[in-house]
């Protein structure tokens, strides 16, 4: 009887998980055919100890959670999320420029629970040097308010073969460690400029 109860529990658990997975299948995300809320973003790198193997960018979007079904076990609602590559072009020495749209993705009712409304969460510019990827980023609300964002990264990480492979590091704001030893850090500055169509 005990074995039957355990077997029944695992069958129920499998069916529940499968049902949860089906309800949260990634929807068919469509682009807005005529986005208008455009921002030009400039990335400037200062005092890096060497060249980067690559500097890329992507925009991270997320929906509200009310429009997605609850998870079968936890009852949580997980936002729909997606990354969209951003074409980052050189714009002078150690500078790059890219374009993001607040309204790039089309709001739709994916699960029959109401319209999922997309929001630009952040613009991210991974910069790879050896085993380390430095990750300057600026949040969506900082983009829309056209704030300048400067972040600091330790120069000692640059080209350090002793670090764990594929290490990702975010930047620091101006802080006591940076102010105390500014020569040990390089910086990135991200700034957005509204250019609505």
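Q: What amino acid sequence fits the structure above?
A:
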């Amino acid at each position: 009887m005990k074995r039957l109860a355990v077997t029944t529990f695992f069958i129920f658990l499998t069916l529940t998980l499968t049902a949860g997975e089906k309800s949260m299948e990634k929807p068919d995300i469509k682009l807005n055919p005529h986005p208008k809320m455009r921002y030009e973003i400039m990335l400037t790198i200062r005092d890096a100890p060497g060249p980067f193997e690559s500097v890329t960018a992507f925009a991270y979007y997320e929906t509200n959670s009310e429009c997605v079904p609850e998870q079968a076990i936890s009852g949580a609602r997980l936002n729909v999320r997606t990354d969209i590559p951003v074409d980052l072009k050189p714009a002078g020495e150690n500078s790059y420029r890219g374009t993001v749209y607040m309204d790039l993705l089309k709001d739709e009712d994916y699960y029959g629970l109401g319209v999922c409304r997309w929001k630009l969460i952040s613009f991210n510019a991974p910069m790879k040097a050896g085993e380390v990827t430095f990750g300057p980023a600026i949040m969506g609300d900082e983009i829309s308010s056209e704030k300048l964002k400067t972040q600091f990264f330790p120069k000692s990480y640059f080209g350090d073969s002793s670090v764990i492979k594929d290490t990702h590091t975010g930047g620091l704001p101006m802080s006591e460690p940076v102010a105390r030893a500014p020569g040990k850090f390089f910086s990135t500055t991200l700034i957005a400029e509204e250019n609505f169509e």
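Q: And what stands out in the fold?
A: The mean pLDDT is 86.
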